[in-house]
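Q: Got a minute? One more chain.
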Amino acid sequence: MLAHLADRGVRVTLACATRGEAGKAHPSVGPVADLGAHRSDELRRSCQILGFDAPRFLGFHDSARKERLRRDDPRALANVDLLEVETAILGVIRDVRPQVVVTFDPHGGYYHPDHVAVHRAATAAFYSSGAPAVAGDAAPVRLFYSTFSLDVFREHAARTKGLGIVDGLDPEVFGVSGQTAAVVFDARPVMARKLLAFAAHQSAFGVAPEMLADPPAEQARRLYAFAPIMEEELFTLGAVRCPVPRWPLRDVLDGLELR
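A: Always. Here it is, folded:
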């Protein structure tokens, strides 16, 4: 969706809460002295591939998840006061003045605590951006949540079984019905660029750009596992400040007069 919008000349700003420093570097990238800096560079390359400006980092720490959850780091996003995260996101909204905000769904995609925190804070920031003292014409008019259809989540869960990504997560909870979707976007026309953006994050997924044409077995499995959620992008509507012209929408800007 972001590549599609950038191709239309829409200004796209990606705000990233952390630098992913609590993750594990895939062995294919070799020793990494500073994983946060490494992953920041990977995200910058990914944004460039998709056709929009470098990301804006909000300065919080990666919380990790499950048994590795960083409960003792006060700057880990899961431990930070929600109002501080909301204020950081609101600062981006006031600066950029977007018409549309897109963030994680209420389950954070796959229940990553940082994704859940961003969902809550971004939703709060959408509402506080409409306060009369600060809004004017700067308040966004639509809030979307990126999520998965029930069938796509089931397929992704089956393909990633044993990889520890969505193992144990109930598709009936984490997937949504077709009637709930505000936008169902076919990403296959931009799949070549999307795969290159995916490969830019080699420290996370172990897939390098040169592997895409003929990937080794491990990387081929990862590409196969992620195909369902990469080919179809689904968005639910969290909030609006203007009428919605049709249902479902063709994309997140459908019916809006771009400013």
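A: The chain has one domain: 2-240.
Q: Perfect, thanks.
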